Amino acid sequence: xxxxxxxxxxxxxxxxxxxxxxxxxxxxxxxxxxxxxxxxxxxxxxxxxxxxxxxxxxxxxxxxxxxxxxxxxxxxxxxxxxxxxxxxxxxxxxxxxxxxxxxxxxxxxxxxxxxxxxxxxxxxxxxxxxxxxxxxxxxxxxxxxxxxxxxxxxxxxxxxxxxxxxxxxxxxxxxxxxxxxxxxxxxxxxxxxxxxxxxxxxxxxxxxxxxxxxxxxxxxxxxxxxxxxxxxxxxxxxxxxxxxxxxxxxxxxxxxxxxxxxxxxxxxxxxxxxxxxxxxxxxxxxxxxxxxxxxxxxxxxxxxxxxxxxxxxxxxxxxxxxxxxxxxxxxxxxxxxxxxxxxxxxxxxxxxxxxxxxxxxxxxxxxxxxxxxxxxxxxxxxxxxxxxxxxxxxxxxxxxxxxxxxxxxxxxxxxxxxxxxxxxxxxxxxxxxxxxxxxxxxxxxxxxxxxxxxxxxxxxxxxxxxxxxxxxxxxxxxxxxxxxxxxxxxxxxxxxxxxxxxxxxxxxxxxxxxxxxxxxxxxxxxxxxxxxxxxxxxxxxxxxxxxxxxxxxxxxxxxxxxxxxxxxxxxxxxxxxxxxxxxxxxxxxxxxxxxxxxxxxxxxxxxxxxxxxxxxxxxxxxxxxxxxxxxxxxxxxxxxxxxxxxxxxxxxxxxxxxxxxxxxxxxxxxxxxxxxxxxxxxxxxxxxxxxxxxxxxxxxxxxxxxxxxxxxxxxxxxxxxxxxxxxxxxxxxxxxxxxxxxxxxxxxxxxxxxxxxxxxxxxxxxxxxxxxxxxxxxxxxxxxxxxxxxxxxxxxxxxxxxxxxxxxxxxxxxxxxxxxxxxxxxxxxxxxxxxxxxxxxxxxxxxxxxxxxxxxxxxxxxxxxxxxxxxxxxxxxxxxxxxxxxxxxxxxxxxxxxxxxxxxxxxxxxxxxxxxxxxxxxxxxxxxxxxxxxxxxxxxxxxxxxxxxxxxxxxxxxxxxxxxxxxxxxxxxxxxxxxxxxxxxxxxxxxxxxxxxxxxxxxxxxxxxxxxxxxxxxxxxxxxxxxxxxxxxxxxxxxxxxxxxxxxxxxxxxxxxxxxxxxxxxxxxxxxxxxxxxxxxxxxxxxxxxxxxxxxxxxxxxxxxxxxxxxxxxxxxxxxxxxxxxxxxxxxxxxxxxxxxxxxxxxxxxxxxxxxxxxxxxxxxxxxxxxxxxxxxxxxxxxxxxx
Length: 1187
Known about the structure:
The protein is mostly beta strands. Helices cover 4% and strands 39% of the residues. The strands form 14 sheets. Strands 67, 69, 70, 74, 76, 78, 79, 80, 81 and 82 form a 10-stranded mixed sheet that branches. Strands 1, 2, 3, 4, 5, 6, 7, 8 and 9 form a 9-stranded mixed sheet that branches. Strands 20, 22, 27, 28, 29, 31, 32 and 34 form an 8-stranded antiparallel sheet that branches. Strand 5 (64-72) and strand 6 (79-80) form a beta hairpin.
């Protein structure tokens, strides 16, 4: 071991720079080459050290390849120097002659320097020549003993200073005490107080030391380590900047703080340096073994120590009991101290020093924690400590006698000091010099504990906890996920939720993803083709203006449910926003004239907003209403209806659509106090649609094409997400380079995505392999994140792949070139295909705008149905759009953005819905030739039908659906208890029970299938093929008596999702009453009775159709296109009842069922319906099929 006095080694350069080097040409080389060697240099006085340089031993193969640097003021209590990113090791030499110099990123003030070899040339020994660079450092010091104070009064100033500052350095072994006290003229005071090793800034009222103080900020950690720490307090007029070492926080304070008082301590102008030798247990292999302990007394024996750690568990001390054949363990578990099975103390892994003393007194073993402030516990049964015991601290030797040291617990990682045996302090310097005991993997005379949560990397309010080697973030209740709570778990818009298949409702929206804006609960309206974000405020009702005495104006203010930052972000990223503004008036003018001063106005826009003098539907600054813009106001002389000042009620209403003036924040009405004036106003919710980020895309048609953007800044946290589709098997999506660092995401094969980067620790790669090809020209989503703890990559909905970062490696990603999208700087391995919705740290890159000015790249990317077509449900068709897609629900019995919203209605006994399909040919031929349509109805044939519907009723028998033709053929779907003639009865029972049931019937030629609910499909075969010709109409509910003998049945209950081939009569009647060939008779009430969650007995109150009885609803949006085979010539008659499902089929042949007289039966008179011949029944040449 080398220790060099610095006196003879100083050289002066212009009395400013000093350097030290070892004398002689050879250099330093210890007799043993292991990691327990060091070179220590005494610089003679405190020095500001700026750089170090190393060289190998002259003329040899001896040099260091890596080393640690330690610094100290006293030659004890060493502190390891750590570079940026907490890197401790310095790279050394590659040969014996070259000089490797390292400029320290932050200078160090110390007297002693210690270099500890880590690695050296494997073909040589430890060898070193060393130089240090720096300047002498002189400063005044004060020493405080905790009982006095130093007062400093600021001299009076002629004017108030806008900026004042005070700075100091301190070091202490006490974890609590007041450092600085300052008092202002208003008797407010600020205190800088050290508490549990952290610096707290406290604000107090008055001159008393009342505990009622307001905690402003806390900064720093482990400040009681007897090393110098820098504090700076900078006071501005309204705030204060607090700096501890390299960290700064801002705090709001009262003004006029002019009295500075440095408090606590008897003052001496020198600095006492108490010596405490600590040791650091750095790894699971660390232990200290003390042998040769003096003979322990049988009456009183004690072992004591102090420790600090972040770990929740670990062995502190163990020794065997030879006479009892057992052992004693003193250990931490779950942050509590345990002596065998007895425990004492709690929360001992807080990074603070804790004292532990193990005492054997008269056969009783006692453990005491933290002296009088702690707790104690007694072991049972009692026993004596005997001679010959060996003490093991922290752990056990890796290769030792298991009878001497057994450790069933975790090893200790942390610091210990002040070890005592029988009240005699153990000399750890003798241990370090191998003169006493033995040890392994210990750093003696220093405590290397690091607070990894002091400058927490946990984002978005995540709580930080730590162990010796790493930290953990608890992200629960934050709305974010990942190792550092960086990535939002919520979508950024309602549009994004919609295209995951969600329906209308309240959703948490995080508009900036991983950015600082918090997620908020917002209502998403997805019932239309457009997806609306609805932001509510405190008053959306029509409000009557009630003038207040003494006030000439009426004002209203609107508070929105969203925070200001989120509100601005939603408006900015939406394609369109609107807000309804309505004013009802009677002798109450609104805006006056465009040339005169406005009587009323509203305030809108970002921040506090700006005064606006136009009304809904007009242009900003026009001082007009929409009627003035359209020139249809009630008085042409005015530009608003209300400005006509009439005694009749009028109104001005319209939509505000200029995003830069939204939302409406307040409203001021000025003409409300005149006699006879009456008015009311309404400000609607803010509604926005169209997420500009979701569909922002670019198409790269060449491997050499790319887009470039400014350098990506994601030094500590970076998240990247986008969607892609391609037919190529490889290509680079994204790349950004630095001098040495880089980040890249690429498609490495047709089934694998690769995320790679380097922050100075060497390249790190994360792979995700897909089970399906990724070059299928369908959209796939990539989400990559890199933070100081780990890197992760997720593809579509596959599990995320992760790679941990080195525990003490570089953490800053330093890039300096342009960001390349779709290619690389070398123009090799470029990507061919589409990239969409690219976001970096929550910010969307505008690919389309950049693509417009970039050759080889096209803005936008069509072809979304291949990926999202499955979202169109219930036979809805996906329709491509330039920047999105939509669902065409015309062939479906459902409605909604994804054809997923049921169309249901409640029927009364007299309700009827009739949908007319075709006009008879005879009627067309009797028309004037000038009015004949271009395509004349012809007798085509359809040999297949598909019928589906849902119902809920307690009526039996009942008619659900009736389809008739011009040839007196029909199809009917009924509820009945029995069927006449030869009926094959379904096994499904009890359908008229008030519950929701679904029926599906399909026929192809002579094959018929019937399915009820989720029961097994039942298949039937007709005796021969049948046709159903010239279909005339579809009827739901009660029939016209002229149509059928079934007319008296009718239906009471709910029908939902009725579909005959592609015809939905219920949907046409409810949603397209003015343009469909539908006739509605009786009350028809739209409802949600078809929902499985609906209460069948609840009142079904929804939208009512205001249609006169029997009034036809004409000019259909006709959905007859599925009948392309002509009019079918078969009638399927299906009886679905409380006990049976039956299908009855007619076509023109001689009947096999004998015709019988029919008796008209009312549903309420008979529990079943009899089927028999009549003038409305099958004729002689018709045949009935019963299934």
